[in-house]
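A reminder from the course coordinator: this example appears on the midterm review sheet, so study it carefully.

Given structure:
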């Protein structure tokens, strides 16, 4: 550890790569640490990234490749290493990886979050081929078709209402006999004609070869199984922020997200957080990229305060 960085970026998803581009343009000595050696984050598994401005129809993988190339063109350095701890040494931070230790003035945590999986047959195989974890990302692909949403909380109800404006029919599948979302959302769901709720039910299998054709539904009270014809399956059973396994992070909320505002500033001076890993309303590629830009602005302002 013989080098002092201005900024260590942990994670190479949209937030991390945007931060790398902005950091290089700000002439900050920067390194991006990525756990797997593959850049792009969750979006690389999407067949189409159709709501990113100016790039309609681009695949998530292609977008990730392009942004990585952009970052490298600006001079960004990427290192494959898994971070296990961040040490706060005052005006210096030490990022501890499994391979190396990195001394830096500032840290940007952009480790992202992963959708909670159902863990049923066909789910992984058909992800991006009808199985989706983001209604606002992929809903437009199912215009005038029949889809299902799994979940009973606020996000599931929001997703069902959003999809009901686009799709012919929306099945809302919930494992309990009462919804958990706020009452106003429940009332909207109950009063939307093309949303139908399947109570006490879970998805036991996703069917299809190249695309989703149907799902198997199991009633948890009777154990009866039925098959429902759908073209899309939207899972809204929660997200898991990638904060486990890293010691020394700033304060987390009850769900494990890092507490940071739009400026990506956390409670610990010199440690910033953005993208899907921070507390926020909307988790999209566009909002993650914005976090990367905002974070570097905050980092630059912070560096000016150091002696």
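Designed residues:
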């Amino acid at each position: 550890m013989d080098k002092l960085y201005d900024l260590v970026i942990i994670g190479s998803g949209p937030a991390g790569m945007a931060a790398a581009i902005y950091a290089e343009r700000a002439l900050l000595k920067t390194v991006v640490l990525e756990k797997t050696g593959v850049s792009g984050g969750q979006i690389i598994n999407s067949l189409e990234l159709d709501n990113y401005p100016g790039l309609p129809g681009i695949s998530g993988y292609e977008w990730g490749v392009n942004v990585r190339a952009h970052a490298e063109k600006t001079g960004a350095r990427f290192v494959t290493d898994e971070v296990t701890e961040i040490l706060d040494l005052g005006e210096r931070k030490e990022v501890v990886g499994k391979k190396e230790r990195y001394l830096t003035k500032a840290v940007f945590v952009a480790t992202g979050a992963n959708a909670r999986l159902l863990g049923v047959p066909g789910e992984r195989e058909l992800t991006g081929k009808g199985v989706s974890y983001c209604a606002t990302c992929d809903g437009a692909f199912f215009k005038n078709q029949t889809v299902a949403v799994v979940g009973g909380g606020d996000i599931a109800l929001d997703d069902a209402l959003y999809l009901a404006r686009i799709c012919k029919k929306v099945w809302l599948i919930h494992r309990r006999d009462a919804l958990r979302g706020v009452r106003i959302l429940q009332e909207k769901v109950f009063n939307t004609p093309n949303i139908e709720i399947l109570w006490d039910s879970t998805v036991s299998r996703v069917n299809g070869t190249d695309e989703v054709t149907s799902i198997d539904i199991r009633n948890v009270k009777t154990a009866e199984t039925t098959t429902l014809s759908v073209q899309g399956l939207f899972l809204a059973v929660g997200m898991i922020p990638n904060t486990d396994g890293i010691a020394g992070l700033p304060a987390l909320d009850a769900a494990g997200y890092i507490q940071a505002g739009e400026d990506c500033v956390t409670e610990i001076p010199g440690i910033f957080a953005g993208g899907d890993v921070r507390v926020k309303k909307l988790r999209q590629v566009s909002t993650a990229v914005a976090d990367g830009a905002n974070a570097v602005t905050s980092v630059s302002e912070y560096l000016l305060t150091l002696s």
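Residues 285-303 form the longest helix (19 residues). The first strand starts at residue 4 and ends at 10.
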